[in-house]
Write a structure and sequence with these properties.
Layout (H helix, E strand, L loop, with lengths): L1 E3 L22 H10 L10 H17 L3 E3 L2 H14 L2 H12 L6
Helix pairs in contact: 1-2, 1-3, 3-4
């Protein structure tokens, strides 16, 4: 399925979440950050699994305002790492976003 990753992550009141530089956080930036992050139990991940995460992050980053073809497996991986990397508010927004139909305009 085709997904866009350029939407701004918003808080419950509709204001944008900000990154460490005070810029609005996009779904794509949050997802790529989560995919590329190192977690305590990642020492047991194979190089192939880490490379798979890198390639997915690269595709999402490279899409900019376009769409990315993602599989159900990709979406499951994205949800897993986003849940590990972010607070409940960001996780809730991204889960809802991914489960909706934010595909091509």
């Amino acid at each position: 399925m085709q997904k866009r990753f350029d939407s701004i992550v918003t808080q419950l009141d509709g204001t944008p979440w900000k990154n460490e530089h005070g810029e609005p956080l996009t779904v794509g930036k949050a997802v790529t950050t989560a995919l590329l992050a190192a977690y305590d139990d990642d020492r047991t991940l194979s190089g192939e699994e880490k490379f798979k995460r890198f390639l997915l992050a690269e595709r999402i980053h490279g899409a900019g305002t376009g769409t990315v073809e993602v599989t159900a497996e990709n979406l499951s991986l994205i949800k897993l790492v986003v849940a590990r990397a972010f607070t409940t508010g960001v996780v809730g927004f991204i889960y809802r976003y991914l489960e909706s139909d934010p595909g091509p305009p």
